[in-house]
Write a structure and sequence with these properties.
Blueprint: H1 2-21, H2 54-65, E1 68-73, E2 76-81, H3 84-92, H4 105-111, H5 124-136, H6 139-144, H7 146-162, H8 167-184, H9 197-210, H10 217-220, H11 236-261, H12 268-272, H13 282-292, H14 295-312, H15 314-328, H16 343-355, E3 365-366, E4 371-373, E5 376-378, E6 383-386, H17 388-391, E7 410-412, E8 419-421, H18 445-462, E9 463-467, E10 499-503, H19 507-512
Parallel strand pairs: 2-6
Antiparallel strand pairs: 1-2, 3-6, 4-5, 7-8, 9-10
Bound molecules: protoporphyrin IX containing FE.
Protoporphyrin IX containing FE binds near residues 118, 292, 434, 436 and 448.
């Protein structure tokens, strides 16, 4: 009897040892994971990732271990891609494998009820949502948004000149007005009085916060979602349910507003309603709109980054103004049609996106198949992060990466002396990777780029952004190191800095012609 038990115990032990150590049939040579920090037993590198500006830690790992790094959290590998080549190899060239998202219980399943285009898992639903967005953002629609974008950029100039102390809210108003106007046909009043503007920023900050790695235990231990909310420590469930309900109400209200505005101002959402729509249900359309309504926050960060760079590098500002004055002149505002003749302004926008990327770690992807890359094994289900911060600092692609150098995106024709846009090899048409990669590439990238460009062109034409002064009247050079940018969440914004706005020649009379929407408080 004892012998039988012993034999069974031995057989089970041998089977378990075999199962534990057996070679993975997809990794018969037992290739290693990409190199990286060892971490601690069981928890791995969980405690090595600070809650503050964690992209800087990941960037240090890239510098130490190379352009592809692995760290582990509770036994699960996370891979960081830290060069343009590696990111393009995996996310673009192997997009069939690397286009899923990790499972986010709080952000995706609870808050977004599995209908957020950016967090939904790869598959039929994701394809349908992307198709809907692409249908809504086709070239004709993007061109029809130009009058709204141009008008809002001029309202920004008027507002910021009148209330310079409140310029951060004016930037928020500009980006909200562009998105709410084009997506819903909504006329945005002041940031503080508008019906939707503050709510979309609030919703975006909760959503971005809920994506922060390790912030909510339920993402590490999904079973926690089934613990009743009266159990000590499960109070987060009530809060999450409230956030989810606030978002549902907001998205539904905005969709209804688009329906009412359809005749006066057709919009992305109104075009998607009804039988001819985009092939999604009305509820899904509301959530697609909801996903997009979170983008004023990221747009605001790029526009503020541009203003900070102009304060810090006045010589760049002057050169751009000289280009604008020679092409546009002083008797009209810059328009989209000028873009082709303003390569230096375009290069400033690109350099802003490269220099201080608003999403320094982009949005994580996940793999759906075991894979081998450059002698390393990457198992199915691995979370793969593109460290845009590191990618935009690869000195072989972007020499002197800490310097703000728009010229890196330009070449000069030696015979005519005219400037032309050039793009870096892996950055393809944009020259940077702010908008991500592959099948998850931001579908709003062109629209976002238009909004930032028209903002930059109009601000440079109308205003000098001057440095603030200290109590002795000396100019304050604004600090621009990474600590001057907010931490946490997915988006990083410049912290407040001192600057002044001065109207350029002949602009005052143009401001009189800028009509402010009803409800605007100046
Ligand atoms: C400066 C502004 C913006 C930035 C920096 C930005 C950046 C990004 C990034 C990094 C991603 C993830 C890419 C990846 O996973 O590889 C993304 C996804 C997305 N963006 Fe944007 N975006 C901006 C504006 C917009 C706008 C204006 C729209 C729509 C009009 C938009 C719609 C989306 C959607 C729907 C996704 C999810 C795509 C997917 O997962 O398939 N974004 N964006």
């Amino acid at each position: 009897m004892v012998n039988t038990f012993a034999l069974v115990a031995i057989a089970i032990s041998v089977a378990l040892i075999y199962l534990w150590f057996r070679p993975n049939p997809n990794n018969p040579k037992n290739l290693p994971l990409p190199p990286g920090p060892k971490g601690k037993p069981i928890i791995g590198s969980l405690l090595d990732i600070p809650s503050d500006r964690y992209w800087l830690t990941m960037d240090e790992w890239v510098r130490e271990y190379g352009p592809i790094v692995t760290f582990k959290v509770l036994g699960k590998p996370v891979v960081i891609l830290g060069s343009p080549k590696v990111a393009a190899d995996l996310f673009d060239r192997r997009s069939a494998i690397y286009s899923d998202r990790p499972r986010w219980v709080l952000a995706s399943e609870i808050l977004a009820r599995d209908m957020h285009t950016g967090t939904v898992r790869i598959g039929e639903k994701h394809r349908r949502y992307r198709k809907a967005i692409q249908a809504g953002l086709r070239e004709k629609a993007l061109n029809s948004y130009h009058p709204i974008e141009e008008k809002e950029a001029r309202i920004f100039v008027k507002e910021v000149f009148t209330k310079p102390e409140d310029f951060r809210n004016s930037v928020k108003r500009f980006t909200s007005a562009v998105i709410l106007g084009t997506m819903y046909g909504h006329k945005t009043a002041s940031f503080s009085t508008d019906r939707f503007a503050q709510r979309i920023f609030h919703s975006a900050s909760i959503f971005a916060g809920s994506l922060a790695p390790g912030k909510f235990l339920v993402d590490v231990m999904p079973w926690l979602q089934y613990v009743p909310s009266w159990v000590p420590g499960a109070g987060w469930k009530k809060l999450a349910a409230q956030w989810a309900e606030d978002d549902r109400v907001l998205y539904t209200e905005m969709l209804e507003e688009a329906r009412q505005n359809a005749a006066r101002q057709p919009s992305f959402i109104s075009e998607g309603l009804g039988e001819k729509g985009y092939g999604v249900t009305e509820e899904e359309l509301a959530y697609i709109g909801g996903t997009i309504s979170q983008t004023p926050d990221t747009l605001m960060s790029v526009c503020s980054g541009f203003m900070l760079a102009m304060t810090r590098w006045p010589e760049v500002q002057k050169r751009a103004q000289a280009e604008i004055d020679s092409v546009v002149g002083r008797s009209r505002w810059p328009e989209f049609k000028d873009r082709v003749n303003l390569p230096y302004v375009t290069a400033i926008v690109k350099e802003t996106c490269r220099w201080r990327p608003v999403a320094p770690l982009s949005v994580p992807h996940a793999s759906t198949k075991d894979d081998v890359y450059e002698g390393y094994f990457i198992p199915k289900g691995t979370t793969v992060i593109s460290s845009i911060w590191s990618i935009h600092r690869d000195p072989s692609v972007y020499p002197n990466p800490e310097e703000f150098i728009p010229e890196r995106f330009l070449s000069m024709d030696p015979t005519t002396g005219t400037l032309h846009e050039i793009n870096t090899e892996e950055g393809k048409e944009r020259g940077h990777h702010l908008y991500g990669f592959g099948r998850r590439l931001c579908p709003g990238a062109t629209m976002a780029d238009h909004a930032v460009w028209i903002f930059a062109a109009n601000v440079l034409w109308a205003l000098n952004i001057n440095r603030g002064k200290d109590e002795n009247g000396n100019e304050i050079v604004p600090p621009v190191d990474p600590m001057q940018f907010t931490s946490g969440g997915e988006a990083s914004h410049p912290l407040p800095w001192k600057c002044d706005f001065e109207l350029r020649e002949g602009v005052r009379e143009f401001l009189e012609g800028v009509q402010l929407p009803e409800g605007t408080e100046l």
